[in-house]
Amino acid sequence: MNRYGTFRWLICALLFFACTVNYMDRQVLGLLKPALSQRFAWTETDYSRMAIFFQAAYAVGQICFGPLINWIGTKTAYAGSVLFWSLAAMSHALCRSVPGFSAARFALGLGESGNYPAAIRVVTDWFPPQERSVATGIFNTGSNMGAIFAPVLVPLIVAHFGGWQAAFLTLGCADLVWLAFWLGFYNPPEKSPHVSAAELSHIRSGNTPATEGKIPWLKLLRYREAWAYYGTCVLVGPVWWFYGFWLPDFFNKQFHLDLKHFGPPLVVVYTVTALGSIGGGGLSAWLLKRGWPLNRARKAATLLFACCTLPVIFAPRVGSVWLATAFFALAAAAHQGWSATMYTAVADIFPKRTVASVVGFGGTLASLMSMGFFYLVGHVLQGDGTYKLILLICGSAYVVAWIIFHLGVPQIKPVKITESFV
Predict the structure, then answer these.
(1) Closest CA to 250 of 234, 266, 235, 264
(2) What distance in Å separates the CA atoms of residue 280 and residue 287, rounded to the nearest whole number?
């Protein structure tokens, strides 16, 4: 890193902290669900409705955010996204009814939808292909840090700063601190005063002419490679969202843990997940350095991650809270490794200017599928009250997704642009 300069890694650190505050804001309602369900007499379907509103907004935002980045620029678009979700997070403190919380979740989902398309675009702009999976794995670890900090901070804030409302207000304000650093430090690499000529040359190394081409985002739907990626999104996206929204409730229902006691299992789950994100993002890069072809390296890594999600099927069938924790930790870590590698595969396949649109539309489809999955979750829990069927679906989704991607993309390589697509 030092031979070329290191400022690009400071940019990666900004992305890491953006994901951290993003996930802290997202986690608060799930952590408070057992207490707020009693306070406001929520049913399981009430809570699933709030999650559906979040996903609906996330779906709308993801499909719009890629073109928005191309229109107003990454710096402005990312800043606007963070400011909006910060205000939305704090607005939860004003809510007292299911419609009120649903509206706040909708606003939060709309703002947070910009995080990943913008972050992937920044990685594509700031890193050469051989470093992108590592950079993606590092910034994606921020989501795990947010999930680790939230179950530790929320009980402390609730206990010492005036009740549940303070959790939303305090963590929402953390976003504004990040925003100040982003506005102060970020510029495109060509315009940044902190980037040396050697580092800029390194950033631009390895980009093929196809990587620099432009494709209208609607025409991406004509590519089989795009639909193969979208097929993985609709299967694995709902699983990750489910973990974020329902994992505290699982420990509450399965092992009778409350806000003060399900923090340690969640911290363990997301600490292991953070390691999975870094190691997972670096696995295919390590295989590439050992001489593996690009296609083989990315496919082998994702297949391993898919197999590591299978044991979560048994989580509702064990009597030990720590064995269940281990199953969730392995599955969540595997998801992060999967995501880091799959995001990088998108950058391997599609031109730079389309990356945010590809990821954004995939996120939209995942959010739409999540809405249906959350509806199922709410009704299953309202009925038999167990997670057995739900976790059977979660544990099987990744293997099916890997098969779909492998069939749709036999070889990971830049798409060939023909006249009919320009």
Answers:
(1) 266
(2) 11
Domain 7-421 class in CATH? mainly alpha
Radius of gyration of the chain (CA): 21
**Structural tokens at position 37:** 């369900």
| Distance spanning both ends of the chain, measured CA to CA | 37
**Position 154 pLDDT exceeds 80:** yes
d(CA 246, CA 240): 10
What pLDDT does residue 217 have?
57
The residues near 184 (Cβ < 8 Å, ≥ 6 apart) are none
Name which of 142, 363, 64, 338 is nearest 238 in CA terms. Answer: 363
Read off the pLDDT band of 421 (50, 70, 90). Answer: very low
Distances from the Cα of 253 to the Cαs of 148, 152, 249, 256, 390, in angstroms?
A: 20, 20, 6, 5, 14
Condensed to tens digits (0 to 9), the pLDDT of residues 58-112 reads 888 877 887 888 888 889 999 999 999 999 999 999 999 999 999 999 999 999 9
Residue identified by tokens 């991406």 is: 220
How far apart, in whole angstroms, are the C-alpha atoms of residue 22 and residue 94? Answer: 20
The token pair that represents 9 in the structure block: 């890694």
Half-sphere exposure of 93 (CA within 13 A, CB side): 19
